[in-house]
Amino acid sequence: MVKHLIEDLGIKKVAVFYQDDAYGLDGLEGTRLGLKKYGLAPVATGTYIRGTLDVEDGLDKIIPSGAEAVIMIGTYDPCAKFIKLAKSKGFNPVFHNVSFVGADELAKKLGKEGEGVIITQVVPPPEERVLLPAAKDYARLLAKYYPQCMPTFVGFEGFVNAKILVEGLRRAGRELTREGFIDAIETLDRYFVGIGAKISFGPNDHQGLEQVYFTKIKDGKVSMFTDWKELKKSLGALPQLGR
Question: What is the pLDDT of residue 242?
């Protein structure tokens, strides 16, 4: 996220809005480490308490910084409220969320206010079956057992997680223990046919999948993009970069 904001969009002033818990703090630290590589630091930070929509104080701390981008580590309800409230106050940076937000729900909550909002994903769009072939099984099983539900990023990510979990349990054997499961899943370092990608786990590596996919909200829908020059042009036509 930081690399593209700085190198492709030319942004230098980055703020962080995060959920005030271990997950949010981890996102804040990741942003700090990313910015440090460019000799930068967050220009401001703001928080909200998990399970609440109390975003006003966090927003009030970020607005005076003049941030050109706000990296957001939170769920869709508070993040949507933050974005809507920011725009109502004339504060229009680039809003950049992580997959934790729930992209599809965020787009629904934002409506027309979502145009140009960016979300990183750890799985590609479920319809992009070539990028991660497990999407085919996900769509098939979802249609079979939950025909009333449409494929989503969150659902697809959960499906991939479940497949990896089951493989770890299979390797751990019948006499399951916490330590035995950890030892078993840390042997997963190969192309996983059930997913269609290389899964990498080890004592010092719990990342699993390494690829990051970038998506944006356009016309109320979440779609993947790879052309940052084109993205910059589209953002330039929005209030975000209309300074």
Answer: 41
* Domain range 2-122+212-241, CATH class: alpha beta
DSSP the chain: -HHHHHHTT----EEEEEESSHHHHHHHHHHHHHHHTTT---SEEEEE-TT----HHHHHHHGGGT-SEEEEES-HHHHHHHHHHHHHTT---EEEE-GGG-HHHHHHHHGGGGTT-EEEESS--TT-TTT-THHHHHHHHHHHH-TT----HHHHHHHHHHHHHHHHHHHH-SS--HHHHHHHHTT-EEEETTTTEEEEEETTEEEE----EEEEEETTEEEE---HHHHHHHHHTSGGG--
Q: Is the pLDDT of residue 243 over 50?
A: no
pLDDT for residue 27 is more than 90:
yes
Looking at residues 83-96, what average pLDDT do you find? 96
Output the pLDDT for position 127: 87
Q: Which residues of 204-236 are buried (b: 16+ CB within 10 A; e: fewer)?
A: eeeebbeeebbbbbeeeebeeeeeeeebeebbe
Q: How far is CA 20 from the centre of its chain?
A: 17
Domain with CATH 3.40.50.2300 in the chain: 2-122+212-241
| Environment class of 190 (CB within 10 Å of its CB; exposed 0-12, middle 13-18, buried 19+) | exposed
pTM for the whole thing?
A: 0.86
Separation between Cα atoms, residue 33 and residue 49, nearest integer Å: 23
Report the pLDDT value the prediction gives residue 82, as an integer from 0 to 100.
98
- The predicted-structure confidence for 115-142, as pLDDT tens digits, reads as follows 999 999 999 989 888 888 899 999 999 9
